[in-house]
Specification:
heterodimer; A: mainly alpha; 2 domains; 5 helices; 65% helix; B: mainly alpha; two-stranded antiparallel ribbon
Amino acid sequence: MQRVDPVERRVDPVELLGGVLLVAVGLWYATYALAEYNYGTARRMGPGYFPTWVGFIIASLGGSIVLLGLVRGGDWPRISLRPLFAIVGGYVGFASTVELFGLVPAVFALVLIATLSESPYKVPRTLILAACLSAIGVLVFSWGLGIPLIPIRWSF
Amino acid sequence: MELLSNLAMGFGVAFTLQNLFWCFIGVFLGTFIGVLPGIGSLATISMLLPITFHLNATSAIIMLAGIYYGANYGGSTASILLNLPGTPSAAVACLDGYPMSKQGRGGVALMITTLGSFVGSTIGILIFTGFAPMLAEVGLMFGPADYFAMMLLGLIAASTLSSGAPIKGIAMVACGLAIGLVGTDVQTGQQRFTFGIPQLSDGIGLVVLAMGLFGVAEVIASIGRVSGNKVQYNSTVLPWRGDFWTAMNPSKEEWKRVPGPMLRGSAFGCFFGTLPGTGATIASFMSYAFEKKISKTPERFGKGAIEGVTAPESANNAAAQTAFIPTLTLGIPGDVVMALMLGALIIQGIQPGPRLVTEHPELFWGLAASFWIGNAMLVVLNLPLIGLWVAMLRIPYAILYPAILMFIAIGVFSINNSAFDVYVVGILGILGYLLMVLRFEPAPLLLGFVLGPLMEEHLRRAMLLSRGDPMVFLQRPISAAFVTITVALLLLAIWSTVKPRKVRNVAQEPV
């Protein structure tokens, strides 16, 4: 890691980013609630009353976090994108196959895609792992707990 | 004695083969995940929630509770032997437990923590069985304003007293409230923040949210961190080489040091466990600090003082039992795990609250009895089988995380047979990872999510009864007391955010 001159690092990007996001989300939430749902009165609150206030509270807390981030230093956040994409991809794989093809193909899709997060990708080990896990899944959920999950759907 | 006959009835419930089985599964899994750093009781309980839908309510809560207090036993094992706290509340046990291991007294430390855990739990259970029915009667006097004020206190306490910056904790609570409002408004039938997606009209599921934020996000974050590394440990520290039982036997002098910290730790645990918003972690830190303060030889702390392991471990186990008091009798969870318990009961059609003890005595007393049985099982599981638990630390993460991901996927899917929920879990995983990267704690968010709809309901009722006058929160004595403590906590949080900046800047300088 390179050393940064302390004078240069006067703000904390993590806090700034988080605070700004909260301000945006909070303001959007409050204005959406105000525009779409009946606000009502303090005595008879409509469906918009509580969300409006929650939104404004989020925004003002976000504002305070921004202020705190301005007065102290910090490092940039480090994001590991590869595991993020691999694992979310694994869930997309599972969700898109489980209803059409059944549990076993869905677990294979999940494991084969999610393990892309590691390098090097070990094909035989991953296949064995997927086979074992889908067997455990069928044993525990379909048979053990009697949850109606079809292991493999042949006709579709 | 009504208490005794109630307890006898509870043991009747807990001693059925089915409940014994689920209690065992709970404490076994709890010890397992407690030893393993990286998966906590939170992720495990949310993974197992869908399974409990297929059990009856009593078995379900007995098993989930077993995971929770079992993890407290297991957590200290990894702390003492490997300096790796398996659970946050076991972090304090590292301070003196690991030095004890390095001095070859790891076996003694394990023996004492298991005993301390058992004593702490026993006292916690006594308080639970004695105090919970009383609190339930007080709870019957609570009006909507009091409930609202108490939930507010619980949320503020949980977010300001936990680790991390208090203001970010409160912001997470508010975000949780916001997510909790998605779905149909109970009073008007208005669809809120559903954007015309029919699957959202019932709101976002608690299980889906918990698994996304804790399970999936934790896996994403862990892969970057551990990738392929096995846990490294010094095998000479491990106690079961050589003469197992003599290595575990504390000396006479050590026996003398132990009872005081055990009792004081249990007292701390019972207090912070019952208080909404605080729990095992705070109790263990506080009791450690207290022991160090009253000790005649505080310089031994951090170098293997046996009091430093005993007190916090007694405290966190006592807190784990008493945390059930406000959850069951007032319907107000003290921490996130308790929020999940609350969710599990509500899904089972049981509304936790002042009437739970009288309306579902078999559940309440059965749970109390299962605490005793579960803790007895844990003593057996932890002492002779310690080698097994530590051997489990050798399971490589490359095998563990696909298994975790699969259990999450199947669990989420099986709730409603809905592939949509699996997509949502993926999206929430991204959100949870983003929160971690931006140093936000996801736990307060979940607490806000659970309490959000309840708070809105009580606020609406309170304001309707007071004809729109917000002063009602200060006029009722119970509510006024909660509001006062809440304001005090907020002031404390603001003061601590503004004041120690210089110290924090120094701590953040790169090494």
